[in-house]
Amino acid sequence: MRFLPDDRDPSVLVVGAGYVGLCLAAVFARRGLKVVAYDVDRDHVERLRAGRCTIAEPGLEQLLREGLASGCLTVSADLSAAAAVDVVLLAPGTPVDADGRLDSSQLEAACRDLAPRLRPGQLVVVKSTVSPGTTRTVVAPLLAGHGLRPGIDLGLAHCPERLAEGQALEQLRELAVIVGGIDAESAAAAAALWERHLGVPVHPVADADVAEAVKLASNWWIDHNIAMANELALFCDAFGIDVLDVVTAANTLPKGAGRLNVLLPSVGVGGSCLTKDPVMAARAAADRGVELRTITTGRAVNDAMPGHAARSLTDELRKLGTDPAGATVAVLGLAFKNDVGDLRETPVVPFVEGLRRAGCTVRLHDGLAEPDQVRARFGQDPEPSIGAALAGADAVAVLAAHREYRELTPGDLRAATRAGCLVFDGRRYYTRDEITALHDHDLRYRGIGR
Fold this sequence. Notes:
By secondary structure, this protein is an alpha/beta fold. It has two domains: 12-206, Rossmann fold; 296-447, Rossmann fold, CATH 3.40.50.720. 42% of the residues lie in helices and 13% in strands. The chain contains 17 helices and 15 strands. The chain has helices at residues 19-30, 42-49, 60-70, 105-114, 134-143, 168-172, 184-197, 208-239, 243-250, 277-286, 293-319, 348-357, 371-378, 386-390, 403-406, 410-416, 432-440; strands at 12-15, 35-38, 73-76, 87-90, 123-126, 155-158, 177-181, 202-204, 254-255, 258-259, 328-332, 361-365, 395-398, 422-425, 444-447. The strands form three sheets. An eight-stranded mixed sheet has the order 3-2-1-4-5-6-7-8, with helices on both faces. A five-stranded parallel sheet has the order 12-11-13-14-15, sandwiched between helices. α11 (293-319) packs across α12 (348-357).
């Protein structure tokens, strides 16, 4: 049986209108496909129907509104559309539990709700991040509960989400999609979906199990690479050399199909993927008797960085003759990543907690983060402006390279802060010329590994 229509554009149901699901729905609608975005959260659905998007992705709200206005995109809290569509994209949340195991309860609930509504000939694609074997041993049996056999009556594939937050819409239009089916026909249908109707290249793999492992391997590599960069920063600190000089030079070495690619150190690792996916991989391996030491070590290194960064700042204040217990620190950039407002698992929370334990008065600013989210995660209100955060500060911690912080000049910083103010570089990565300019304006500089 063929699982994708050849004579027309397929209609699509996206189950889970969170970050991944809504981006997918909006981009497919922009391509002219009829799309229903489904979510169990009725308040979220009503906000989306009104064209209000609380997901911090550049351009997503505009794309949402365009899709709604064109009629290509519908948002619903009702799964009744499932029977009529050609393709179902499953994108519920898949967190880990306290032991690091995949919590597939949302995905399983979605499959149970879908199963009685499906019909022969449909294609189901799992986008949620899961441990290897989940599509085959969890999703397939649940979908088969009402007599339709995945791989025979239904197409079923896993195509992992690999989007970088802040660039998701662009990457959905360009990034190669990994495709692994539970059988050859399912894989072919999923490949055709992305190639024909999203216009992106496809990288087929042997089966759904391999596709599931690809996402975990990718974030395992990123997290481990950042851990190596963070420890390299500690190494460089011990010798009084600049870690960015070392990384830049090291990355000129040809290696494999490209070059050495050491990433950059920072205040820590955050977000919903890098802090979760490697742990999921380690737990899944442990359940099969395999210990993955690099994941455990990398996670420990990265989790320790906020505390290290806070101590570096307060130690530098003491060297400059300022008691941290009486110091005011302006923290610019609260999100876990540059140019986004996402506060999920942000390492800035433990960094701020470290400053508070040292007795610092902390002011917070992030122009991209929702104030109520700042209040919920940090326990205090953000400052209404950069100027209010900087006023009279003894130290400024720049922890995200948001555009508004990149545009701050040494003169701007000097005009608002105290003489001799410390500029702490947690992810802004000042150049040598910029550091010289800071010193010229009677400001002091300290970076991670710099």
